[in-house]
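Homework help thread (please don't just give me the answer)

Our assignment gives two proteins as sequence + structure token strings and asks us to describe the second one. The first is just a warm-up. Here they are:
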Amino acid sequence: MIVVKVGGGKGINLDAVTTDLAELNRAAEKIVLVHGGSYETNVLSEKLGHPPKFVTSVSGYESRYTDRETLEIFEMVYCGKINKSIVEMLQQKGANAIGLSGIDGRLLEGTRKDAIKIIDAEGRRRVLRDDFTGKVERVNLDLLNLLLGAGYLLAITPPAISYAGEAINVDGDRAAAVLAAALKADRLIILSNVPGLLKDVKDESSLITRVKKENVEQAMAFAEGRFKKKVMGATEALNEGVGQVVFADARIQRPISAALAGKGTVIE
């Protein structure tokens, strides 16, 4: 079993991702796709007059500030435009795909945070209480196995659902890690618009090609911005029994196959 997470940054080649995914699916590889949509969400938010806001937690992690209006825009993009575009691409390429959000059938469940502590632009600590964010803690394996057993290729996207029944914005990389652990996946492949984890984010030739599991914490020192969540997700997946995590490039042809062949940053 392979879980593939493809990010939503600018420059992602979804045509190449879905072509590779459909070919691997025909070759009887068991694969589940998790996707993002951050760039498109930012664009639509600007057009709707509700520009995106990002906050940094006291522990140094950046995330999207998600009030109710932002959550609704998020759902339009992730659950609507991008999810259905991916399903359409996969159907055109011969894969019988189904698109689901974490809300559907309580596929991805977790707790909505009562409050988040952030560092504002002036360096002061603040508490936000109207944020619809959380963390995936539970996966509906019965639903997943029912659909996978019937031969469907799954394209899954945030948001998740809280135990109280509220939609919550969750980090896609960490959600994919929980999903990979629940499915007892052999590999988690995290695709984005860079070749992998870089020593210097301005130099793509500075790719770190191999990291041992016990050295992941040291590797975090090279992660900047939202890539920190990818390293965190990788750590969580490995700690829960996933055999290998690969950070790889979603801009190239056959990106999943390249990652399976070891191209990118391999952590095991």
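The one we have to describe:
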Amino acid sequence: MSLLLLLAGAYLLGSIPFAIVTARLFGLQDPRQYGSGNPGATNVLRSGNKLAAVLTLLGDSVKGWLAVWAATRLGFDLGSAALAGLAAFLGHAFSVFLRFNGGKGVATALGVLAGVDARIAIFSAIIWLMIAYTTRYSSAAALSAAIAAPFAALIFIGPQLAAGVLAAMAAVLVWRHKENIARLRAGTEGKIGGNKKSRQDTPPKP
């Protein structure tokens, strides 16, 4: 299998919008229509259905891990496998099934980290949990974990292509949170466990 075909397959895998699939299975409102409007596990949790949120989290994480795992099973080196993970992450963030829109990619990124080296994923998950517990801001936790991940990669796997790919993924993840960063600075970012709020009830941007 060529690397190009691998990356295309990984992108399509990452494009599967598990938040929307899960919402339909549970008869829930489309997660793009309330809260942050993000088709991800945190926003699905705002629906009040914890099982749907957990399944979304698992689905989004597994597709990142699966892309890396499949690449290694097919005989690709770790750098190429990391590129496959990046393709899956980009598929989630810019899904072909959602007109190239998508989620922020936190869960998928965690799955990619687990596929490359479980120690990086564990380190990043600990950072996420610590920040989420102390601030109750999912976005702040995600940003902190994203920034920490490349440093963890350098520690655990050293300066190689895979570490560079993970750094690029972290940079995209931070960029995808630019609106969250603005809300954090303004003090208007929603907290974990906040009430569900329809996007239609949100005042339009000036």
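TA reply:
I won't write it for you, but here's a hint about the kind of observation we're looking for: The CA atoms of residues 114 and 121 lie 5 Å apart.
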